[in-house]
Amino acid sequence: MLPHPTPFLTELLASLEPTPGALDHLLLDHICYRVESVADYERLRDALLVDNILLAESIIQGRRISTFRMSAPWVHGQRRIELLELPEPKPGSFYPEGYDHVEFVTDRPLAAFADWLEEHLGIDEARIDRSGLSKASNADLRIHLGGGWSVKFHERALDAVIAEELGQEP
Predict the structure, then answer these.
(1) How many angstroms from the chain centroid is the CA of residue 17?
(2) Which 8-state DSSP code applies to residue 138?
(3) CATH fold group of domain 25-165
(4) Can you tell me the distance from the alpha carbon of 12 to that of 131, in angstroms, rounded to the nearest whole number?
(5) pLDDT tens-digit profile of 96-107?
(6) What is the secondary structure of 49-116 as a DSSP string?
(7) C-alpha separations of 33 from 4, 22, 145 in Å
(8) Residue that wins the pLDDT comparison between 20 and 48
């Protein structure tokens, strides 16, 4: 139903890491797959419900976003990626269908992690989008990559944030 994310992850990580494995110490928390229309969102969401666990379908910035725990996690190198984020397209915005971004959990506070990105990955300070630092829930840093792709960094895993929002144990 979904293409394997290996080509996407390989290219994305190669464009981000100066040497392979520079981010291996971080949890690759989840991967995002975008669709082109509301109908595509509903079709894929319903198909994913058959074999996977829907952690939440929430309204965020005026559109639905579903988060699934995949029954068969993807494996990329030494990583197991268990969570998939499926956003409904924003009204008036077009996204080509396919993988769009990944999100990592940091090993330190975001401000210190931004310094680490500059020092260890050579990311220019101007490329680090800090606008998500003011988010009330699960603040983030973002790096925009070529091809419309991006990488986000959070201090907390998405499934823990969802469990907290739903009043459940993580």
Answers:
(1) 17
(2) S
(3) 2,3-Dihydroxybiphenyl 1,2-Dioxygenase; domain 1 (3.10.180)
(4) 22
(5) 899 999 999 999
(6) HTTSEEEEEEEETTEEEEEEEEEEEEEETTEEEEEEEEEPPPTT----SEEEEEEEE-SS-HHHHHHH
(7) 11, 24, 16
(8) 48
